[in-house]
Write a structure and sequence with these properties.
Number of strands: 0
Order of helices and strands: HHHHHHHH
Helix content: over 70%
Oligomer: single chain
């Protein structure tokens, strides 16, 4: 029995199909960033929902024309509250990014990989340009008092960034990007409900995506 098991194990090692699978796995790990954790998506989505809840509470204050019309206020309050929303957005982004880095670093350590490698650099480059362009668009919308288009713009450009970066990490992230683009385009037709779409795209979808990723790759 022992000799038979040893023979079967050796045959498995010599199987060219299995050898090719192992080579492909090694190449994928070197060409793609596979340390993204499902908990990163869950964390980012949860932080986004907290930020959206805070923004919603601010929008209940007098001076705003419509609940959910992010960064769109009457003249006497616009300058005062615009900075509040900008700092809230920055704080939400920093806290979410910090959690993403923590969970990604933890998974990379568990897999015996480095978080900063050629694949991660390429992925970050693909993320940077669409997000940078979207940031410029958002700033100009705020500058000209058209803040109701900020949430849709964030969703569209962020979704494009995910689609672009999908070639350097799990392909599943592209589906999240496609959904964010679709939600952002839809939100353009409902300028008074930007915060709702923002919460769905950055909050609920990220939590769902994180849960799926955790089930497929982390569990």
């Amino acid at each position: 029995m022992y000799l038979k098991a040893l023979f079967m194990q050796q045959a498995h090692k010599d199987d060219p199909v299995e050898t090719l699978k192992e080579i492909r796995t090694i190449m994928d790990r070197s060409a793609k960033f596979v340390s993204l954790s499902g908990w990163s998506g869950i964390w980012a989505g949860s932080v986004a929902l907290v930020g959206a809840t805070i923004a919603y509470s601010w929008l209940q204050q007098p001076g705003y024309k419509d609940i959910g019309s992010t960064l769109y206020a009457s003249t006497e309050h616009f300058d005062k509250y615009t900075s509040h929303f900008i700092w809230l957005g920055i704080a939400t982004f920093v806290v979410a990014l910090g959690g993403v880095f923590f969970f990604t670093q933890r998974k990379a350590s568990r897999m015996g990989q480095k978080i900063w490698n050629n694949a991660s650099r390429l992925m970050m480059a693909q993320l940077f340009y669409p997000i940078f362009a979207g940031s410029v668009f958002c700033f100009m919308f705020i500058y000209y008092g058209c803040g109701m288009f900020v949430a849709p713009t964030c969703l569209v450009f962020y979704g494009l960034a995910l689609i672009s970066a999908g070639r350097h990490t799990y392909s599943d992230i592209r589906y999240l990007g496609m959904l964010d683009v679709a939600i952002g385009c839809t939100a353009m037709f409902f300028p008074g409900s930007g915060l709702i779409f923002w919460g769905i795209g950055f909050g609920l979808l990220h939590i769902l995506y994180g849960a799926v990723m955790w089930s497929k790759y982390d569990k």
